[in-house]
Amino acid sequence: MSYHREPTVFGVPNFNAAEDAAALRGAMKGFGTDEQAIIEILTTRSNAQRQAIAQAFTHEYGRDIIEDLKSELGGHFEDVIVALMLPPEEYLCKELHNCMDGMGTDEHTLVEILCTRTKKEIAAIVATYEQMYNRPLAEHMCSETSGDFRRLLTLIVTSSPQGARDEEAGVNPARAQEAAQQLYDAGEAKWGTDEEIFNKILAHESFGQLRLIFEAYKNIAGRTIEQAIKAEIGGELKEALSAIVECVENAAAWFAQRIRAAMEGAGTEDKTLIRIIVSRAEIDLGSIKQEYERIYDKTLESDLKQNETSGDYKRALVALLGPA
């Protein structure tokens, strides 16, 4: 089964970049800022439309729209709006860079960005990262992570010039059977687990092929690959492999759980909340909303509104969720 991806942001018909640029300039000029106008325009335009607005803005006013927005806005509201204005790959590369920069590395963010994306999406991220930071993503990652976890992430971003996953190639049931047997032999069938095999298969195969492999695995092992990973693999590698498995089966549910985790506990993980809502809005945020409601029996919108998010920040996130 291939899972249905429903976005919440589609862009607007009859789009006029110069008009939007003028409206945004008006919202930022003079006394006070018209935040509502900024929200209404930027949360309903597609990313491609926002890039056109940014160009029109520079063309008309000789100014950088992101710099102007930053000087007018603040806090998490500013973070959402700036995230919306960056091309998607640039935004994700910035997030990857930030999560590895300075003291300590945020492994959860590495997993969230790299283990959940298709081959094509990874290829765009890898190319953009090197342009932006003048060093390969794989090299930066290698200096910040270790062990089997490092090997898995490295395989995901370097296995071929286009990244590892081959999404376009058709699925192959016979090969799936073979791979499932290899996984079984590497895990349940022996003492100790051969993580290399898990890494290789889960990093390389397309989501469609992995679906077949996981079905075959269940027939051979009598339990799901997820149960096997949880029982036999620990630490960061477990989190990363589980993310791949869950995203193969239902990415929207995985992201819904991640949003929930970001809102639970003491203080909101705002970076995570913003990143998922902004980066999935044009991909599958509609599906994520449905899964959220199915799993938690509450709408994502009501939880966002009750949450610590407030004011314009909250309004911008709720606007990206689209109509209830």
Note the gap between the termini: 27 Å
Overall radius of gyration: 21 Å
* Strand residues, percent: under 5%
Biggest beta-sheet profile: none
Overall helicity: 55-70%
Large-scale geometry: elongated
- The SSE string, one letter per element, is HHHHHHHHHHHHHHHHHHH
Mean of residue pLDDT?
92
Low-confidence stretches: none
Structural class: mainly alpha
Number of strands: 0
Please provide a brief summary of the model:
The chain is mainly alpha-helical.
Structural summary, described in words:
The structure is a single chain. The chain has 324 residues and is mainly α. 70% of the residues lie in helices and 0% in strands. The chain is built from 19 helices and no strands. The chain has helices spanning 17-28, 35-42, 47-61, 65-72, 75-85, 88-100, 107-114, 119-133, 137-144, 147-158, 173-186, 195-204, 207-221, 225-232, 235-263, 270-280, 285-296, 300-306, 311-320. α2 (35-42) packs parallel to α19. The chain is elongated, with a radius of gyration of 21 Å. The two termini are 27 Å apart. The mean pLDDT is 92.
